[in-house]
Amino acid sequence: MALSGCYSCLKFLVFTINFLLWLFGLGVVAVSLWLLFDSDLYLQTMSDQRTDYYLGTYIILAIGALVTIMGFLGCCGAWKESPWMLGSFFAFLLIIFFGEIAVGIVVYFQGSNYNTMIEKSVRQTVEQKYQENNTAAMKTFDLIQEGLECCGVDGPKSWAQSAYNNYDFKGQEVGIVTAQHHYTVPRSCCKIPESIDCSNSIKLAQQQGLNGNALNTQGCAKKLTEFMEQHLIYLIAAGMGIFFMEILGMLCSLCLCCAVKRIEDLKA
Prior knowledge:
The protein is elongated and about 85 Å long. By secondary structure, the chain is mostly helical. 21% of the residues are buried. Helix 1 (2-37) packs antiparallel against helix 3 (50-80), helix 1 (2-37) crosses helix 9 (220-267) and helix 4 (83-110) packs antiparallel against helix 9. The protein has helices at 2-37, 39-44, 50-80, 83-110, 114-129, 135-148, 169-173, 196-201, 220-267, and strands spanning 182-184, 203-205. It has a two-stranded antiparallel sheet with strand order 1-2. 71% of the residues lie in helices and 2% in strands.
């Protein structure tokens, strides 16, 4: 009687976990399909970035499809008491588990400097991506500047050399620098974007001092790095949680598979 209760409890646990996993996978697939077929998002993406956009979206779609298949196998395997479905689910989860370990080892031994990665990403956004024909990048970076109360890469003056201010990067490459006497920073650099003080402070001369009362003077590269350092513990905790959930899923599916196999052998 006790063994029957444990078996039913284990079956219910595996079914519930995998049903939630299946729903999550369907959600990821739905989001990726929306990203692929939404014409507004496509038009907001610059032409030289559309390959990366599609590549990233197809990767998300593949991950969603894999999670959906895993959830389906685990869910149906528990409901139908199918050893091959439970075994397939276990195999999928084991491959992902070792894949995550391999990625973790590579990242650890490469010693990736995320400070440099953040600064490079912010600089690329400020200098190249933040422009009128890429509203997705503009809205995202505006949210970052407003949320973290920062401006540009290392301050408002980094906006002087940007596509937003029509800076001639091609001329710079061949040694021809066009002098710009004035430049403009986005309103999201202001402490109060809707204020009159903001309107009077966003257009700056090259040698003009900054109005610290109206503009955020700290760079977003430093602010994002500090934000990452403050929240790194949560990312590690989330990763460890996923890690242990995978171990629990493998153990439960393996135990249920063995129990189903034993019942089939006893019936035979």
